[in-house]
Automatic annotation (TrEMBL):
PANTHER family: GLUTATHIONE S-TRANSFERASE GSTA (PTHR44051:SF8), GLUTATHIONE S-TRANSFERASE-RELATED (PTHR44051). One of its GO terms (molecular function) is transferase activity. Residues 3-84 form the GST N-terminal domain. It comes from Serratia marcescens. This is Glutathione S-transferase.
């Protein structure tokens, strides 16, 4: 038994959301960079913890393994409500928070599964390209729906209340279709991302995660 959380992640990926959340909790935590696409000892260690070989994978102080960023966020909120990762129980904002947290994870995230490597699902080159284009167009519609749901009065997704939704937005604005697209088509999300990146406790972490990293998905 120890008091340190250990996050297995990949630079610029969804593990960045959990890294930012851990920074806000002020819990002691460590980070292990893993290229989950390359065979080797690092990936073998990740696979031993998470057979899907995905990040984020979080090892808790009691050595229990957590996966799935939404589940991790909710656990960290339960243990560190001072980090304001979610509205408190009974808050009128809680249903909205839960809705859009699951929307991001259940609707937007799968578009990367299918568009990153469409040949896995459609072996023929022409069909793979068609699948990729269709999924990316669908992702853009989902992101615009998320943008419309963001609090117009700002400064955060839930309006005046910061939450982990803002961490998701800040990270996703670095992914395809890219920051220029977000600035033009999802200005509320883009503004939230900029505010998150300006937070002193997150600025260095986010800069390090995305320095020199191309937008996810080629």
């Amino acid at each position: 038994m120890h008091d340190t959380y250990t996050l297995f992640g990949t630079q610029g990926c969804g593990s960045t959301i959990v890294a930012a959340a851990l920074a806000l909790t002020a819990f002691p935590w460590g980070y292990e960079e893993v290229d989950y696409t390359q065979d080797g000892p690092e990936r073998d260690r990740l696979l031993a913890l998470n057979p899907l070989g995905q990040v984020p994978t979080l090892v808790l102080p009691n050595d229990e393994v957590m996966t799935e960023s939404a589940a991790i966020i909710l656990l960290l909120h339960d243990r560190a409500p001072h980090a304001e990762l979610a509205p408190p129980g009974g808050s009128p904002l809680l249903p909205r928070f839960l809705r859009w947290l699951l929307f991001i994870n259940a609707e937007i995230y799968p578009t990367f599964t299918y568009a990153d490597h469409p040949q896995r699902w459609q072996p023929q080159a022409a069909g793979a390209e068609q699948l990729k284009n269709a999924v990316m167009a669908y992702r853009e519609r989902l992101l615009q729906q998320l943008n419309a749901a963001a609090g117009a009065a700002g400064p955060w997704f839930l309006g005046k209340s910061f939450s982990a939704l803002d961490l998701y937005v800040a990270v996703m604005c670095h992914w395809r279709p890219g920051r220029a697209w977000f600035r033009q088509h999802c200005p509320r999300l883009y503004a939230i991302a900029e505010r998150v990146e300006q937070r002193p406790e997150l600025n260095a972490l986010l800069s390090a995660q995305f320095d020199g990293v191309a937008p996810l998905e080629s």
